[in-house]
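User: Hey, my collaborator sent me this sequence without any context and asked if I could get a structure. I don't really work with proteins. Can you help?
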Amino acid sequence: MSAASHYQAIVLGAGPGGYPCAIRLGQLGVKTLVIEREYWGGVCLNVGCIPSKALITAGKRMEEFQHAEAMGIEFTGELKMNMSKLQAWKNSVTSKLSGGVRTLLKGNKVEMLEGSAMFVGPNELEVTTKDGPRRVTADHIVIATGSRPVEVPGFSFKDARILDSTKALALPEIPARLAVIGGGYIGLEMGSMYRKLGSAVTVIEMADQVLPGFDTDVVKLIHRRLKKSGIAVELSSQALGWEESGEGAVLRYKTPTGEKSVTVDSILVTVGRRPNTDNMDLEKTGVAMVGRFIQTDKQLKTSVPGLYAIGDCTTGLMLAHKATHDGEVCAEVIAGHKVYNDARTVPAVVFTDPEIATAGLQEPEARAAGMDIKVGKVPFAAIGRALTTNETDGFIKVIADKASNRIIGVTIVGPHASDLISECVLAVEMECELHDIGLSIHPHPTLSEGIMEACKAALGEAIHVLNA
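Assistant: No problem. I've predicted the 3D structure and written it out in structure-token form, which is a compact way to encode the shape of the chain:
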């Protein structure tokens, strides 16, 4: 093995946290190496966020065509999904983006190394590459190793019947019958997508509601839509095991009324994710941990000088955009800038149908904290643009401090919630008051008018809904 190569900074992982961190370091003139084991762009870009949204969009288009008669659009012949073409299109999207990540890293003078890295010490790594082992050292090392799906005992991802999110996004055929263990956001996104593509879907959730932690108003609407779409939902239920039969996989699960079973072709397990902190000899660094997560401060520094951690391997929300923000802040800190991660809110988005998006506190959270609040709620059915798109399920809810009228949270469930939430993130970050949004002229006819109207509703000044 040759002598170790030295860098000012090494970023371990090129996912949505790691590659923006490396790019920003390059922009700031820091000599940087980024090491990636498998996916340039990370799980999110290659086998997570991006491919799942591609398939979800295809499923939604399929459903829209099936219900286009209301607009006078009529089809002759059979509407069907060509799964091989869909997968090819999805793969072309991820390939373009992954190639773009490599181009951006190269363009910002970041050195790239493909391999699996292990810590030798706090500032030294040994990387196993196709050309053999290589030692590298750095003044600063950023751990951006992400996370992976949690495996449930008795449901090994090595079995062809058992799917994690990665396998579920690459199926060559649409499963006729699909069971989903876990009614969180990943399970509902994937289950809803496959239902639209034609699968019979059963969701098994241990909690007494799907989407634990979300506003009950949102959950009720989503649960109603799941049932309307034909998805069977079993709450307060636990998967026990499965056996192979002549007709498929027989999944047994415990319910409040006794044990039940369902025969399916595939079982998708989506009960959470765990940080990738257990496969790189991290203990050799002496870094402080919080369970399986790496402990960091507001500058993404760990307990070991020169060692940083960002994204899913740290405490906090496991979200790609949170990881990206971590990465950019971390790069600034390494470059010597006085920067902190002090975001007031990290927005959350669920790509169910309809979509869900939140920024700041949800109403139940604010009330549980004992806050004196006022709430403005406007249904999409009262928004002209929603009617013209034939998507009227859902609402926009704005939560504000009663004394100051400061906006402390927004919850949206409805069409294009994922796009609408960004204005609300800015409102929470800037501590806007209800009038700041309510008196800002919004274009008509648009869905964003609903945010303006919800702010006015909280003030008792709404025009298009009755004020409470």
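In plain terms: Residues 83-107 form the longest helix (25 residues). You can pass these tokens on to your collaborator as they are.
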